[in-house]
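Sequence in, structure out.
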Amino acid sequence: MFIHDTPAAFYGRGIKITSDILEKWYLEFNDTIEEFQNYLLNQTFDNPLFTSWSLRLKYRETFIKTIIGWLEKHNNTEVNSQWYDIIVDLASRGSCEQDWCHTIYILDNNQCVIHRQSTALLSHGLTGLSNWPASIYLGDYLMKRIYLLENKRIIELGAGSGLLGSALLKYSDKILSYTFTDYSPMILNLLRQNILLNFSDDQFNKQIKIEELDWNQYSIDENKQDYFDFILATDVIYDPSVIESLVKVIKILLQINKQCSAYIANTIRNESTYNQFRQALNQSSLNICSIDRDIVQSIEILQLTFSS
């Protein structure tokens, strides 16, 4: 699984930190506030895992200012001078925001995923240049059940920057093959960069594939049928105009291998668009099962199988 509630997990992934979160960690730490400061530094700014990668500068500044502000509110607490040294160093680099940064996702099997992404949620008119919550949610769901994917051939539709597949491949070395697909050349280029950051050339060539896939053009090719055991997709329901084509691709892949399952996770941001997707699935005559849902984040995981 992804590690979520530690200073390293927050810092590496660029998650907003608050005084309440710091207070919670401090109470759980059960030691002096001086030792707690050393712990925070060891987990974040002094952590070798993060020193080689361009974590978002704006986030680092906010992170450390929040820590200093929280420490200054504690009576008779001496703030470690290293915090001030770091904030001065960050300020000396200027206030220009990066277009690209790295995030680092820590897994509970002592592996991590180093991930390059855009600092903008929507960049160059594309949504696939940064990570979205459903990929993390489906990743957690599948890593708890990693046996489902072992010795299986997997295809991911709309893989974006590749976080889901990278995490699954880091979690198990028994996945037979993983094919990342997307359509935009810019997204495919970023995807390739992220795979090369995390995997050897040998693993890339033998186990991992990156392919361009245009949902509008996809059809069964009798001379070259793509045979997969699992279909994965996350946060692909945002544009009503592509829903029909997406459902068609899923149905074709399930039809080629009738033992195949599709796991589709989406954050429900627009009820109308999501209902349109569910309606298209119903009309496709696929078997549809809601297997998990997060009410707080409005994320649902659907399992789709071919209806014989």
